[in-house]
Structures are given as C-alpha cells and as structure tokens.
C-alpha cells in the first residue's frame, strides 16, 4: 500500500523521484492524522510557492482523480494526509507481510562485502570491549546478507607486533611452560601486565621486546614457535566465546598472515614516490590532507599495523573483489583508517571510495574505562555467563516448571547482552546496568523475546490449526490491529536504512516498536474466540508478527525461545 501511495504521488509530482518521495513519506504518530503523511517543504523551490499552498493544491488534485484506496485525503498545513480504506489496506499489508522472504532485498545480488570485525589481540583475554565490534559486525553481516550481498566475515586477529616481543620477554623472565599450560590465557595476561609494570622501572625491557619482534619478522624459529604457542592457546578461548554467542567467521586471517605481503606495499609506494625517510623510519606524508604521516616501516625495518592493513586491503581486493570493505573498530582508530584509506587513494586505486570505517563508543561498567595494560579488565565470558545465571534465577522464580530452562536461560541471557549493545546508535557508549539489561518489561531483549513467546503461546492454546490463505480483512480494521500492521510494513525499509547507515540499532528499535504494538493488539483484541472468521484473521496477524519479530531479532544475532 505504501508503494501505491508513492506511485500516486509520483504521478502528481514530476519534480521528485520515487526514491525521494519514498524517503519523505511518513507514518504520523497520531492516528487521527491519517495512515501516511507527505511533507511538501522540499517542493517549495521547484513550485515557487509556499509549502502549505503546494499541499493544498496537490490534495485537491489527488482527490479529483478519485483513487479508491483512500477513504479521504486531507491537507493539514504543509502536509498531505492520507486516510486509507482500512479493509483494503489490511488486505494489502497482510499479503505483503505474509511471505517467506519478507524484508529481504535483491540490491546486493552479485555484490561482495568484506566485514572486518571482532579481531581480538592474541594472548589477551576477550574482554567486554571486544564484544562491541563482534556484536555490531555480526549484525551488519546478517543485515547485508538479508539484502542479497555475499559477505566475507573476516577476523583480523591482532597476532603480530611488538607486543609479542614484550610477551616473549615476560615469559622468559617470569613465566613457565607449566603455568601457561595450566592457566592458559590468564597466565599470559598476568605476565603481560607484569612486563608493563617492570618496564616503567627498566626501559631496557622495551629494547629487548623490540629485538624479539625483529627476530619474529626475520623468521627466528624459537621466536615463532613461542608466538604460535601463544596464538593457539588464545584461539581456544576465542572460539569458545564465539560458540557461546552463536557466531562464526569465514576467515581467521590475522596480521601475521600479511607479514610476507608487506613488501608489495613498500614497492608500490616507492614506485609512486610516496615513501619518504623520516628520522630513520619510512612514512607517507599526509600533511596536505591535515593528517599525521602514515608510518610504514620503523627504524629497525620492521612493519607496523598500518603496513599490514594496507597489505590486507590489496589482498582482499584481489581475492574477493569486494564492492565494499567495512571495518568495525573503536572510534579511537578513526585517524588510523583515514590514513590507510588515503594511502590507498594516493596509490591510484579508485576503490578507496568503497572503504568504510564503522566506529563505535566505549564499553564500561560502573563508569570505569577498561584497560588490559593495567589489568583492570572485565572478561566477556564472565559477563555472558553472569547474564545467563541471572536469567536462570529469574526463570526459577517466575516459571520454575519451564522446560529446557538451561537453554532458554542461555538464549535470553545472551540476547539481553546483544540487545543492550545494539539498542542505541553505535557511536554512543555502552554502560552495563543489570537491572535495565535483564528487565522483561522495558525496551530490552528479554521484553521482545517474551513477546515472541507470547505469540507462540497463542498457538499452543489454540492447538493445531491450519491458517487459511485468505481471511476476513474487515476484522482487522480496528486501531490496535491497523497500527500493528502499519508498523510491520516498515521492516524492509528499516533493513535498507540500517545497511546504508551501518546502524543495527534501527532494527533493535523497530523490534521494540513491533513488540509494543503487538502487546496492545493482544490486550485489545481477543484472539481465541468462537467466531471462526475473527479467530482466523487475528491468528494470521499473530503469525506474521511472530515471523517478523523472529526475523528482526535474527538480524541482531538473537534467538527466540518458544516459551519463557
């Protein structure tokens, strides 16, 4: 029905494209203002008239043509307000929403998107800060896949760099094979923190660390053997956490994968006369772009992460021929990616325009910023298990006889953490507040999951029933039902906007809105009634709502339990 309105407006407004009309068309917050509203402000320049006069003329023009999909079309100020013929509207919506692929798009067919996310630093615990990139990246993967894109999920592990020289020094001075094998990554973190404490008193430790990293770059067997051991230990923990989150990757190609590919970057920069020496190091000057220089090689000849990111981009473009490459990292890396993308541009690659940095804010608990260097860190696995345990306690209190309590606790606990992260714009900081996160009544993951379970409970109460292809649409013209159906129609557009703006929060907010509208419908419209026409029509509404909620939560990486 929305598309029909867009077509009608397009017939009557030659000065705007259908795309612009679709973007401007609104759903009024108050039902007495109509089902859809179109603002005429943007037409003022083209029509050379005041917006309210334009709205008045277009309203008269549309009414004169007598479109049968409207009960009435009225002019309110600078707006054209459309009141739809409710039964026809309900039928149109139900037929649109009641499809297996509702919300899916085709704009991505034949196109590839690389998404670089999660990327924890090897030999360091996976803390709550890593959750943000993992959660946001996974949701973007699902959103782009829904639109038909082929997505390459890349975990660019931080598994190379001077920090491993530091860790090797720490291991040799204060560690032991037995302790590392027994305590795993916790032991590696312990000696890593100790290194920084001791290096503040003895700077020669930093020199030793740099020497060990140079050995790694030169292929020293002992250095690489210790490094690989640290990496293997770390991956065991990371993969356990990804499994708990229900996530996976297509590639675990970290920085080390590109260490033999950085020479290509250096050669290309030399060919373009972009590489200059500065205090013994080699850089690309970016002064004319108001940016600090991009460091390519350190004084000792070793590479740096910018070099490896450049090598990764050349490799990914050659290997995947991506149409877009997205990096999901913290806001503090904004300059780094601006430098890397600018260097790609200076090398003459026009696909630099398809490189996107998607930044996000910090994660904190009780107002404290997280820091691995100082040992003040909250582990992701700890947070996830605590959420599961807290939900288990709530279920034991409210529904002790619930089947599969452990599995439901996992689904709701993990879902609560994911939703809390994705509910606001990604650039905003995330603060853990257990009372808010686990609330079954607020705008939370558990609230939406509970709404889905409520839908499922309707069908359990009704029993086995086969829903007809057609229902009595006149039953669905009350305000509560119409508001729910109108909300459901937004799903495809919300997905597209979430992809365009790299903002999963749009899906999260949509899911909350649908849940709220459904619960109003559930309260106002009795479903399991004797009148078969009413019953089937309302069950059909429950069915499509249930599927849309499930699809929306899936785009956030959240599962839907049938009972809670």
UniProtKB/TrEMBL annotation:
List residues of the Arginyl tRNA synthetase N-terminal domain.
3-84
Enumerate the PANTHER family for this protein: ARGININE--TRNA LIGASE, CYTOPLASMIC, ARGINYL-TRNA SYNTHETASE
Localization in the cell? Cytoplasm
EC main group:
ligase
Which segments constitute the DALR anticodon binding domain?
Answer: 448-564
Q: Which gene encodes it?
A: argS
| Superkingdom assignment | Bacteria
For the motif 'HIGH' region, what are the positions? 120-130
Tell me the subunit arrangement: Monomer.
User: So what does this thing catalyse?
Assistant: tRNA(Arg) + L-arginine + ATP = L-arginyl-tRNA(Arg) + AMP + diphosphate
EC number(s) recorded for this UniProt protein: 6.1.1.19
Name of this chain's protein: Arginine--tRNA ligase
Q: Where is the major localization of this protein?
A: cytoplasm
Q: Name one GO molecular function term.
A: arginine-tRNA ligase activity
Q: Its family?
A: Belongs to the class-I aminoacyl-tRNA synthetase family.
List the keywords (alphabetical).
Aminoacyl-tRNA synthetase, ATP-binding, Cytoplasm, Ligase, Nucleotide-binding, Protein biosynthesis
């Amino acid at each position: 029905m929305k598309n029909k309105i867009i077509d009608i407006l397009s017939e009557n407004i030659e000065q705007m494209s259908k795309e612009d009309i679709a973007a401007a068309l609104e759903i009024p917050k108050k039902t007495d203002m109509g089902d859809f509203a179109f603002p005429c402000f943007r037409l003022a320049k083209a029509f050379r008239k005041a917006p309210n006069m334009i709205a008045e003329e277009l309203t008269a023009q549309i009414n004169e043509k007598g479109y049968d999909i409207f009960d009435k079309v009225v002019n309110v100020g600078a707006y054209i307000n459309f009141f739809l013929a409710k039964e026809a509207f309900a039928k149109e919506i139900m037929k649109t929403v009641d499809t297996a692929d509702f919300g899916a798009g085709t704009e991505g067919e034949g196109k590839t998107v690389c998404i670089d996310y999660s990327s924890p630093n090897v030999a360091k615990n996976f803390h709550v800060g890593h959750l943000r990139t993992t959660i946001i990246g996974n949701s973007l993967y699902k959103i782009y896949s829904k639109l038909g894109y082929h997505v390459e999920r890349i975990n660019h592990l931080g598994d190379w760099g001077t920090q491993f020289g530091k860790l090797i020094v720490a291991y040799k001075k204060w560690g032991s094979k037995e302790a590392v094998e027994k305590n795993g990554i916790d032991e590696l973190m312990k000696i890593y923190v100790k290194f920084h404490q001791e290096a503040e008193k003895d700077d020669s430790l930093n020199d030793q660390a740099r020497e060990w990293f140079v050995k790694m770059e030169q292929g020293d067997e002992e250095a690489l053997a210790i490094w690989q051991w640290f990496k293997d230990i770390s991956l065991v923990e990371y993969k356990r956490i990804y499994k708990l989150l229900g996530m996976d990757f297509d590639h675990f190609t970290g920085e080390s994968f590109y260490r033999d590919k950085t020479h290509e970057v250096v050669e290309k920069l030399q060919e373009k006369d972009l590489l200059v020496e500065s205090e013994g190091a080699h850089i690309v000057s970016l002064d004319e772009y108001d940016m600090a220089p991009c460091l390519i090689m350190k004084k000792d000849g070793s590479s740096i992460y910018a070099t490896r990111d450049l090598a990764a981009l050349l490799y990914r473009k050659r290997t995947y021929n991506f149409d877009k490459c997205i990096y999901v990292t913290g806001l503090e890396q904004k300059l780094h990616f601006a430098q890397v993308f600018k260097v790609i541009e200076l090398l003459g690659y026009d696909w630099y325009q398809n490189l996107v940095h998607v930044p996000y804010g910090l994660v904190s608990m009780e107002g404290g910023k997280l820091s691995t260097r100082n040992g003040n860190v909250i582990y992701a696995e700890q947070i996830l298990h605590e959420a599961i345990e807290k939900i288990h306690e709530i279920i034991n209190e409210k529904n002790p006889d619930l089947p599969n309590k452990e599995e439901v606790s996992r689904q709701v606990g993990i879902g609560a953490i994911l939703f809390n992260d994705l509910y606001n714009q990604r650039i905003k900081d995330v603060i853990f507040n257990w009372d808010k996160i686990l609330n079954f009544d607020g705008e939370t993951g558990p609230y939406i999951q509970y709404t889905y379970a409520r839908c499922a409970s309707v069908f359990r109460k009704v029993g086995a029933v086969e829903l007809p292809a057609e229902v009595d649409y006149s039953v669905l013209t009350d305000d509560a039902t119409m508001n729910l159906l109108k909300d459901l129609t937004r799903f495809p557009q919300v997905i597209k906007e979430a992809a365009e703006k790299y903002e999963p929060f749009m899906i999260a907010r949509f899911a909350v809105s649908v849940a709220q509208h459904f619960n109003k419908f559930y309260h106002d419209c009795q479903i399991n009634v004797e009148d078969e026409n009413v019953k089937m029509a309302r069950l059909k509404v429950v069915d499509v709502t249930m599927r849309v909620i499930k699809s929306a939560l899936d785009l956030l990486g959240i599962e839907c339990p049938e009972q809670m």
